[in-house]
Amino acid sequence: MTCSFEKTNSSDFLIQYKEILEISWSNHSIDKHFDNKKSVNIEMSLDSKLIGILIGHYLYQSSDLDEFEILHIAILPNFRNRGFALNLMEELEKLLNINKKSLKIFLEVSSSNKFAIKLYEKLGYKAYNERKNYYRSKSINASHTQDAILFAKSLDAIR
Ligand SMILES: CC(C)(COP(=O)(O)OP(=O)(O)OC[C@H]1O[C@@H](n2cnc3c(N)ncnc32)[C@H](O)[C@@H]1OP(=O)(O)O)[C@@H](O)C(=O)NCCC(=O)NCCS
């Protein structure tokens, strides 16, 4: 079993498996994200088969500090609960800190997404705020909403 990671500018995998990767964006929004020069996207393969993706973008870049936001991470359902999302998050941290700057990574997650929260906490992300009723279910008139939890992690520069 060989895992590999690759930076990508292609939205094909995410668009093809949009529903099962649980991303609610339109295809247009996904394509716009991949066209953004500040975006960083990593695909994960297992024995050459694509099984997951992480997408994000730089919010701020200076000579000594980078701020980055993870917008989505998803693993195909048959490959979940085997530590692959953890591997993908670690790959991102390695890749972003390659120039040895200080780095802050931000993300937000629904308060009901227990597995994702577990993943972020295991990697040292700390909840720093919340947005009440941020996620609405698919129907615009739905009364059912979920809070968003905002997480951040600082990776100090290696000197
Ligand atoms: C969230 C997601 C990316 C996690 O991927 P994954 O590869 O299953 O994650 P990992 O295997 O690295 O596991 C992360 C933690 O969740 C737990 N977990 C994941 N699936 C689980 C399951 N079905 N039952 C019990 N625990 C589970 C793992 O055990 C692990 O905790 P642990 O280290 O304490 O054991 C995946 O569930 C997914 O793609 N979800 C849909 C998209 C999504 O919600 N993305 C997050 C948006 S913010």
Describe this structure in words.
The protein is α+β, with helices and mostly antiparallel strands and 159 residues long. Helix content is 23%, strand content 43%. It contains 4 helices and 7 strands; from the N terminus they run βααβββαβαββ. It has helices at 12-16, 27-35, 84-96, 114-122; strands at residues 3-7, 39-46, 49-61, 65-75, 102-110, 126-136, 145-155. A hairpin with a 2-residue loop joins strand 2 (39-46) and strand 3. It starts with a strand and ends with a strand. The mean pLDDT is 93. Bound molecules: coenzyme A. Coenzyme A (COA) binds at residues 22, 72-75, 80-86, 109, 113, 115-116, 118-119, 122.
> pLDDT below 50 for ≥5 consecutive residues: which ranges?
none
Associated small molecules: coenzyme A
Order of strands, main sheet, comes to 1-2-3-4-5-7-6
Shape: globular
Indicate the structural class.
Answer: alpha+beta
Rg calc: 16 Å
What is the CATH domain class?
Alpha Beta
| Total individual domains | 1
